[in-house]
Amino acid sequence: MGRLPASFAEYALMDAEDAVPVPQNLSWEEAAAIPLTFMVVYDMLVQQGNLKKDEWLLVTGVSAGVGVAALLAGKALGAKVIGTSGSAEKLKKLSSMGLDVAIQTRKADFLQKIMEVTGGKGVDLVVNNVGGSMFAECVRALGFEGRLATVGYVDGVMKAEMDIEALHAKRLKLFGVSNKMRNGAQRGVTVEGFKRDFLPLFASGKLKPVIDKVYDFKDLPAAKERMQADAHLGKIVVRI
Question: What is the reported pTM?
């Protein structure tokens, strides 16, 4: 399993650096649901985010594929996870998967609730899975030496307010999570870390991907339609 271009194809070529052995306890569909999302999550939670046991993790848009993976990995690392979503139904399902605090909202209005549950300290790491409309509120929600990962912008908002005073006083770290400008060797560092730190969790069953629905290749248009309608929870898998 691994990351590769042209994955809506019967055959594709993968760089050796991106290849990961599949643990025997995983099905083909489960293996397909892991590489892209969980490698991104490993990059932002472990490599750059330095998430530790008992720290607070906030995930905006927690019901999306990367959001669900961040929740599951965060819990496996021993963190306490807060998630936002506009869907009460999805939040209820995620609460059964370990989500500690569920906030139903599609707006940047979650600061008060976060300060209540963290005793006024704020969170240690934020995964901003939504975009610019949430950025300023995410900065406000961070505690001392907090870290903010920007991984998506499904809202299409590419600019945001930046509180320089908060950045300075709270000693914050802001970073992006993308492979667009990384070469094979740079991606390989993440893959090796993933194999060392996350692969044993999948092999033991402590970490398991959430599959929303599996489609046959002939039903690819329906799979894309489900994704674009934001009807899914977790990963949509296409079986070749």
Answer: 0.95
| Residue partners of 6: CB distance under 8 A and separation at least 6 | 12
Question: pLDDT tens-digit profile of 58-89?
Answer: 999 999 899 999 999 999 999 999 999 999 99
CA distance 100 to 102: 7
Sign of CA dihedral 111, 113, 119, 122: negative
Angle (CA) 10-29-182 rounded to 5° is 70
Distance of alpha carbon 82 from alpha carbon 68, whole angstroms: 12
Greatest extent of the chain over all pairs of C-alpha atoms, in Å: 54
Please tell me the distance from the alpha carbon of residue 135 to that of residue 108, in angstroms, as a whole number: 8
Quote the CA–CA distance of 136 and 172 in Å, as a whole number.
13
pLDDT in tens, 26-48: 999 999 999 999 999 999 999 99
Return the domain boundaries, the chain.
Answer: 36-176
User: Domain 36-176 carries which CATH code?
Assistant: 3.90.180.10
